[in-house]
Amino acid sequence: MTDSGFYWLLLALLGAATGSLLNVVTWRLPLMIGGDARPGFNLWLPASHCPQCKTTVRWHDNIPLLSWLLLRGRCRHCRLRISCRYPLTELATLLLTLTLGWLFPPGILLLAVLLFSWLLLALVLIDAEHQLLPDALTMPLLWIGLTASLLGWLPQPGLAAAVTGAIAGYLTLALLAQGYRLLSGKDALGLGDAKLLAALGAWLGWQQLPVLLLLASISGITWVLLAHLLFRRSLNTPLPFGPFLSAAGLILLICANGYPFF
Question: Are residues 154 and 215 in the same domain?
Answer without folding.
Answer: yes
